[in-house]
Amino acid sequence: MHSPLLATSPNNPAILIAAISGRSLAAAARRAGFRPLVADLFNDADTLALAERALKLSGSLQSGIDEERITRALAELAGDDQPVAVIYGSGFERRPEMIEAISCQFQIAGNTAKTVRLVKDPAGLARLCSELLIPHPDIRFDAPEHPQDWLTKLAGGAGGSHVKPANGNASGYEHYFQRFIPGRNLSALFLADRQEAHIVGFSRQWSSPSEHTPFRYGGAVRLRRYDKNKAARIEEWLTALTKRTNLAGLNSADFIDGDAGLHLIEINPRPGATLDIFDSDQTPLLREHLRAVMGSNVTLPAYRGSTASAIAYTAKAISAFPKIDWPALTADHQMSGTTLEAGDPVCTVFATAPSAAAAMRAVKSRVKELAVNWRGDFP
Fold this sequence. Notes:
The chain is of the alpha+beta class. It folds into 3 domains: 5-109, 3-Layer(aba) Sandwich (Rossmann fold); 116-293, D-amino Acid Aminotransferase, Chain A, domain 1 (2-Layer Sandwich), CATH 3.30.470.20; 306-371, no CATH class.
């Protein structure tokens, strides 16, 4: 993406969004002054309300987006509009060839397939971290001797559901083992311009465990402050990785902060789950994402207080989801009448507070309060 699109595009231009779930990107696009054209797996009510046009992609949460039809779907969605670019969200890390296919037809505002391959290949990232002296957990592809010290992960997986304790078996297709590092998780949202990384802010995430997914993503809270020395070190590491891999736009990096110091766990090379809690009306992050992709100077938002978001899941299967009068500070609502499996997401819940601890408590409390709406027996 080399042309100065922000300077030459018309007011309120169209932008294509492709993701497993496109609602948060659509909301961010509206804040940044774009007309979102959204292709995702859900087309929930919130996404339809935000999108200028929306199209439901083929695929599933388990199998991902149907790569055979993605470019045709985006071309159909674009219609006679001339979208300034395609911004992709979750669903592309495991299949970077989809990014290549899309880039033959549209401008991509984000990382190239080559960059995604570099940072999402477990062995490749481990080698890079070793060369750049960035602490990173050991990885291996054969069964470890002491499995209790290891996790098994899916290469390119997202959302935490693919992470499980190692059980001593071989890693299997596309899976690998990563040594477990005790400590607190930390995520850094950053803007990259292929040369430098600029940290937008830090968040802490938590899990919402289920029987088969002990590390399933539960939610995240934006931190009001973080140790300045550690923050500077993280920015140096991310700048070094940016130079080596050509990272561009909004990305996030997950760390473990423990007694053994900071360890980089993984890079997510696209706008991710924490976009909602960092996006700002004063400094819309999707506009800064485009500036970073083009190599222009970026502006970092200033924040007050803290915001948290959490996913509410259903613990049991529901044959027909009830009609709910959804309160404010919720999104990604399941539609009434929908059939849900146990463990399916029901909605996203938000809370704001003066401190991160208070915001996290508030959002978890709101999830519990809301859950009474779908815990009972429904006709």
